[in-house]
Amino acid sequence: MGSVSLKIGEGTARFKRVSVCSSAVNLLMLFSVITTNLFAWFAFSYHPKTLHNHHYPENISLISERVSLILREIESSQKKLAQMEKQILGYESIDLSRPNIANELKEFLNSHQLPLGKDSRTGITEMVASVGHSCEKSADLLSQYMSYKVNGLCPDDWSLGQKLILQGCEPLPRRRCFAKTLPKVGLQPFPFSLWKNVSEKIYSWSGLGCKNLACLNSKNLNRDCAGCFDIVHGYETQKYVKARSKNDFLIDDVLAMGSGGTRIGFDIGGGSGTFAARMAERNVTVVTATLNIDAPFNEFIASRGLFPLYLSLDQRFPFYDNVYDLVHAANGLDVGGQPEKLEFLMFDIDRILRAGGLLWLDNFYCSTDDKKRALTRLIERFGYKKLKWVVGERVNGSGKSEVYLSAVLQKPVRV
């Protein structure tokens, strides 16, 4: 077997050499057409002197050779065009003939002809599976992820899938197996579910260091989740309604700043879903984007009757342009301290936020003055109106003072 092409979505490969390849394709097509026509004209208009001497076999052989040469030239040009088209459209190649590649991965990535032929609207004739471009770098892990019994139970390997996502292999390929199920007993009706604990047995603890909520609450999982699973007696019950510092904005004050009302919002790295819970109490629907890093965040958010989105920040948000009234983000914006990645993320946030909508930057940790200035300059490039802007200090657990930035920004109308 050779190599199989797999289609990428909005990955970085789509932007690779687009302008150069587009020009090259046009030139190659023009060259191919001109060359083919010249060969054809020469072949069928050429009359050698031997023709007058009635040497028909030699003339037929000569024409046949020239026609074969033309056909080979056409075939070569078509192959070059097809390869350049794949590069332009964002295709990459992964060698599925290598050893230890799972059969299910081969089956998923092979292109399949449309059952009714060519689609009249799109012009496509086959379907190519969508998979992250960085999956090629993790082919061994990907093959392990796709090793399962078809129509059987999926392996208990969600942590493997998340590891692939964190390495850029997003979206993951679909699988033909049944995911592990846990009885969801004791769930509370909405809105009582927002602040009620349920049985810990409804969460999947495999692949996690902690095996219960008490263990999770004893740890600082990240800057936005310290004891965030205690929704009955912990600070989560006061969050967004009672301020501990000047950087803590009250949710009602922020909602009053919105023009045209706030109906739907997007929370980036929303911990255990408390922001979405407070918004739900005010009849605002919030989608919370989070992974299960060291804790069952998605299951916990869902148990509260809220909407979790299992998504990394390296992927384009699966939402249409200008649809959200509010985007809330804290230290989820800290994408490894890489300014280019932060730019891509900020542009995608701006894309999904409607004109007049609010961007709430909530206690963003500024580890250095350079980082604070870089973020400030980036925000100013978008021309957002600063409705509220607070830079404050907070003493951490080791007694060291840290600088945090909180802001409410309003997206301008662009024409």
From TrEMBL:
Regions annotated as coiled coil: 67-94
TM region(s), chain numbering: 24-44
Gene3D superfamilies associated with the record: Vaccinia Virus protein VP39
Membrane topology of this protein: Single-pass membrane protein; Single-pass type II membrane protein
GO MF term set: methyltransferase activity
UniProt record similarity statement: Belongs to the methyltransferase superfamily.
Name of the featured protein: S-adenosyl-L-methionine-dependent methyltransferase
